[in-house]
Design brief:
homodimer, 11 strands, alpha/beta, about 40% helix, Rossmann fold, three-stranded antiparallel sheet, six-stranded parallel sheet, 2 domains
Chain lengths: ~400, ~400
């Protein structure tokens, strides 16, 4: 068996929905032993299981984890968390701000139990002081607050979210990054740490292009540009119509345009002043887009992608979800693995994006049944014997 | 001075534009010494500097780095990279696939020089075998390929990107995560690693909600739902009109709706069967949205956010870029710091989102001038004396 990077690290994962659980997923796929701690009803995403649309993300994000149940609202449950904290390396959570402190098991309390502990949390706006510290936040409201909606959508249309839950996932990735940074530092110093990830902080850097345009325009909000370049300075740069859908094609440099013309077998770039330079094409964007569309319309997404990639033009098909779950490249990399789900049939389960050339990620397991490992984990990490286990269960603490 | 997590780690950062440079930014802000290696013309984003919109992202992503110039197309330049690789901990790059190998300074060559080296790359589709391995990819084409565009936009409208360059930034975050995971493992084993990040892999998990709906619907693509819930199963869940713009409000649970009604001072939830349950509201989504809009229209974004957060309803203003750069919470956390830029005036510079309670991120520096540290770094890490430096400069190698 291969040694994984986080071999021998143990994690208590109080994650909910996407942000925390994705961090736990990355940790488990890097070889850590991840103990998912759930309420007696199951975490939010599992509890939404009656709405079956939650069963896919729950299954994918919770593979390779062990589930235990704990009632952290009970004194006994809180006592167990403290006992577990003495024997694990990491506690992570993405509850609403202040939740763990309210139950006496926040960073201060748990690091007092174990000075080597890394306590890591992610909330909408972080735990450091500031006016939004206690605000509730979820992916869509972070896209609103952090400016993403203001730059997404069609010219003249309303601000728009993307349906990709990227605020959650980019925060979960930073949460993992903070935890592993703290583990690396601890290996030298022996000291734990408190990691504080704000979703807002993680989203703001993604505005880079838009903020570049904003400053150049003298602090003016750029128009929502649909699929065009935010600064409307590059062309071709858009989504174009193929015979079977759409393709995205972008020409960043003059050379891309020449290569695109070669691929389209159109010697227009030198013949027509409207298309002679990037600036000219940007000024004649509708005409430029029409020229490209006239060619793309005649071919399939696959044909266009193949020929343009051969010509070193940056392009891709606009894939729908069916294309993605059946993507041959994701299958070849082992990122997507088809697995049988008890209610959904065959689903596209995921391996970690954090990949090493000589280490395969661990084999995927099914997401655990609620509380399947409660007794075993409490025996191993808190020395709770069957008698105490029964008493705690009768009390509703586990 | 505080000890940063990656204190004493040295990095050669060949990053271009956003993905690699964001990783280098996170490393520098975690205390690593980051040597930015640029061509004699400067990296792509700096070279776009005549288009001044690039100056903002370049300035923000390259603070706390040292710049050296190297012509990696020259034999002498390649020799210098090998000499540097013997003395640093990490090499990172996000060139087009195969670039570093073409010049004889890929993972194999550099790890042969230094078995402890961590060689980390990120490309559109990763370096492992697969049909798209050699495809060029940038943020917008990854949003196309990985399904994001297919689920973003208005019902009946075309597929749409988000103008947030999240594919680049989420990949750069995974690149950092892979590097630090490898550093942690190396501290135990003494062995280096090759980190292989595919932007496509990093984007796919963000489809979680949409894929959940896809599977429940029997593998049917959900309609593009604008700002509504992708499965159209939750309401209120939308962007609403305020007196001075828009706000995002989402009710995930029945309790959120009751709290929203309390905030709006409308006892409708029990009185009208159209609004009595989540399912009823989802069936009467237009009427539900109209009810919320009738209230939001009368108030400012700030008023709505304040009163709804007090009522524990998940909401946020739809902020534009001006709001974001002047956001009081980002300022309070020290995430945004106003700094003077030589051509743009006062800009919103950024600190890392990877935050620790007892460690402040390093003070920001200006992005380095092209090659400002070439002589000093080559002297320190490759024992290149002034005579050899002059010879290499005359050859055009540095």
């Amino acid at each position: 068996m291969q040694t994984q990077p986080l071999d021998a690290i143990t994690v208590l994962d109080f994650g909910q929905v996407y942000n925390g659980p994705y961090c736990g997923f990355l940790l488990a796929q890097a070889g850590a032993r991840v103990i998912k701690v759930e309420s007696l009803q199951g975490e939010t995403l599992r509890a939404r299981g009656d709405k079956a649309s939650s069963t896919f993300p729950f299954a994918v994000l919770n593979s390779n984890k062990h589930s235990i149940t704990l009632n952290i609202k009970s004194a006994e449950g809180q006592g167990i968390v403290k006992r577990l904290a003495r024997r694990v390396d990491v506690v992570l959570e993405n509850f609403a701000p202040g939740t763990m402190d309210k139950y006496g098991i926040g960073a201060d309390a748990l690091r007092a139990e174990n000075p080597q502990l890394i306590y890591a949390s992610s909330t909408g706006y972080g735990n450091a002081p500031g006016p939004y510290r206690d605000y509730l936040g979820m992916d869509i409201t972070l896209q609103a607050m952090a400016g993403v909606m203001s730059i997404t959508g069609e010219d003249g249309g309303p601000p728009l979210k993307t349906a990709a839950a990227f605020a959650d996932f980019i925060a979960g990735t930073h949460l993992y990054a903070g935890i592993v940074s703290a583990l690396f530092a601890r290996a030298k110093t022996g000291e734990g740490a408190t990691v504080d990830i704000s979703m807002q902080d993680c989203v703001v850097p993604t505005l880079a292009t838009a903020l570049g345009s904003y400053y150049v325009a003298g602090r003016q909000q750029p128009v929502r540009a649909g699929n065009r370049h935010p600064g409307q300075a590059l062309s071709p740069y858009n989504v174009y119509t193929a015979s079977d859908g759409y393709v995205a094609i972008i020409c960043i440099r003059e050379g891309h345009w020449r290569k695109l013309c070669a691929a389209m077998d159109l010697p227009v770039s030198s013949d027509d002043p409207r298309f002679a330079t990037m600036a000219a094409r940007a000024d004649n964007m509708d005409a430029t887009d029409a020229l490209v569309n006239a060619w793309t319309r005649l071919h399939t997404r696959a044909e266009i992608t193949e020929v343009l990639q051969q010509h070193d033009v940056i392009c891709a098909p606009v894939n729908d979800l069916d294309d993605v779950v059946n993507d041959p490249h994701l299958a070849a990399r082992g990122t997507v693995e088809k697995r049988l789900h008890p209610s959904l049939g065959e689903i596209a389960a995921l391996h970690t994006p954090i990949r090493f050339r000589d280490i395969d990620p661990p084999e995927l397991t099914d997401a655990p049944e609620l509380g399947a490992s409660t007794q075993a984990i409490l025996a191993e990490f808190a020395d709770i014997d069957p008698t105490e286990f029964s008493r705690l269960r009768d009390l509703g603490a586990i």
